TrEMBL record:
One of its GO terms (molecular function) is peptide-N4-(N-acetyl-beta-glucosaminyl)asparagine amidase activity. InterPro entries: 6-hairpin_glycosidase_sf (IPR008928), GH-type_carb-bd (IPR014718), GH92_a_mannosidase_put (IPR005887), GH92_N (IPR041371), Glyco_hydro_92 (IPR012939), PNGase (IPR050883). It comes from Pedobacter terrae. This is Alpha-1,2-mannosidase, putative. Keywords: Calcium.
Amino acid sequence: MKTGLKSLSILLVLIFFHAISYAQDVLKFVNPNIGTAHSRWFFYTPAAVPYGMAKLAPSTNGSYGNLQGWEAVGYDTRHTSIEGFVHFHEWQVGGISFMPTAGRLKTVPGALEKPGSGYRSGFSRENEFASPGYYSVILDDFKIKAELTATKRVGFHRYTFPKSDSSRIILSIGNVQGESGPVTDASVEMIDDTHFQGYVITYPKYVKTYDEGGRVAMYFFGELNKKPFTVGALAKDAAVANQRSSKGIGAGLYLGYKTAEKESIEIKVGLSYTSVANAKLNLKTEAEHLAFATAKAAAQREWSIALNKLKVSTKNVAAKTKFYTGLYHALLGRGIASDVNGNFPRHDGTIGQLPKDAKGKFSYNFMNTDAIWGGFWNITQLWALSYPTHYSDFVHTQLEIYKERGWFGDGIANSNFVSGVGTNFVGLAIAGAYQAGIRDYDLNLAYEAVKGNELGYQNRLVGSGKMDTKSFITKGYVPYLDADKTDSTGSHFSGSHTLEYSYSAFAAAQFAKRLGKTADYQKMIQLSDGWKNIFDKTLKLVRPKMEDGTFINKFDPLEAWRGFQEGNATQYTFYVPQNPKSLINEIGEKTFNNRLNEIFETSRKNAFGGGKTIDAFAGIQSLYNHGNQPNLHISWLFNYSSSPWLTQKWTRAICDEFYGTESIHGYGYGQDEDQGQLGSWYVMSSLGLFDVKGLTDFRPTLQIGSPVFDQSIITLGNGKLLTIKAENNSNENVFVQSASWNGKVLNQAWLYRDQLMQGGTLTLKMGSKPNKNWGVKLPPPSVQ
């Protein structure tokens, strides 16, 4: 009996260490430093857990803010100094920076180009380490090692000091951080020897533009593991010794310590968007008994569990690194905004309350989120595949917004509208969730809101976008306005709006059809053909129209920003995902394939984007721009045009060449990774699965491409397993020769999504030359 127990114990130990080893194996393929040149505020936040509120990260220039509210700011691999470690990183949300220092007191971060002008410190990338859930760096100016980790709502710092009588921690509270916009109020105070609390209230650029009068409030409650020997206050550029509180713009504290060699000081900071009391409760609930080391281990364990839902096998280390880094970014963005007690911030300044389920747990989380513009071609597909609870959180969040405001908001910052692009795809995303089987919400309320998003225009709030809905419904297209504006008569972005509203009307129509709303279906399915009203049959391109129905003159198909949001007519002509076959017929199948193939041949020379130009909009005047949302479905359209082998060729090439493993060449060259969208595209396309229609069809399909990996084992959201095998796979063997689904011959380049979600094995035999007969006879359905 003892021998049996001993054997069992040994077996359990071996299993445990095998699990730990496998988890570490996955984490080592995540490189958060990929793409950190010209990266957005919320991009580089390694000290966080999936969908966390606490997203801690080093800042190289976050105190600079940004004029337009969206530009790259926060951390840039081209910078060589760090000014602090910031707790909040979301779209339009940023604040609360800490910085350990030593020597003479300096009260401002100083300038990047002027070393010594403030308390920022130089550092070497050789002494910097980032992985999911943990970050560390040595601050060369002070010989201090800084480490960061987090739980969902609590940030952890560990600063290891040299021997010094002038060690110090700066708490910068009342200052601009990243996209936060101007600070309108702030406060920080020591409430006893080892605890501090406070808040900062900001007025972000996009709140001012789309939800004037709104504010973003951030609260904190912190705990030190050692009492400081001195405390002083900061106010703008001044310092006041022996003062334990500070209030207003520029508010902050400095905590002085006498440290022994390699003495560590740890800080735990509870965060909240609703109150100091809830920040304290979040700290107590999540971290009362956690020290830094145990918090770090827990964060890495949480990442391992999340990342291991998708297991890929390949000898191609670069591909595996791109995959898990992309998945990491997808799971990092769009963090929760609700507290452990279910409180969440409402636009009017009051506090909302989440409901509990039958087991006494909160039914969902409330979120802060960037726009879902283009998200249906990446992140919602990933959520629906393996992370449906987050898709559910997104839907519930938007329904909470609808209940309070009467309209959806595209981007959300503490219940404020922060649209970003002045349009709104929330209804489409919710319709997609419904068609994907995510239905744990009030369906009548959801349908009412989705329908209103497509057809409603009276008293429409600016922040809900689509201010030109009336013109689209009345005329079947949005008229072009020369002025850079959007109102009930039309829009300067009339071409892209017409295409977008046609697509979202289709999604709402399919939702109506599912619910038996026949009249609504007929009205919205008719609107989904609106794109035909701006299709120039002579040029075989979409072309904006004036109010009188004539096409705009001086038309240049590559001109960006005239009629098209963040793109041009050449790119947007392919924006008919709701009915690809109809577009193909309008252009002519041979012409369609030749044109699109030539576009990719040419675009390959520019890395499928803006070449090596480091700018978010580098590719918007190109033929194709993978660095921005409107283009992300285009490479998959060949499945609908009798040439699936070209989808295989070009999706594989984009995975190999647009995506990189370097700090500058990561997501293109300094292009725009909106809270996990480009990373999600890589994940889905490298698995060889994608839906051009963004899950909005009456019965969604998933189209098949060219898997990058020899084998992928996907834990689906329902717990079942989907295995994808690519036999004879290599960098050259990118073309599908034949396929089978659960052992039966598969001659089509698609499957119904509900079939795949039952689990099973998709086997693809790969080769170096295209099989131009496979997948041709029965294309994915364009009309259901």
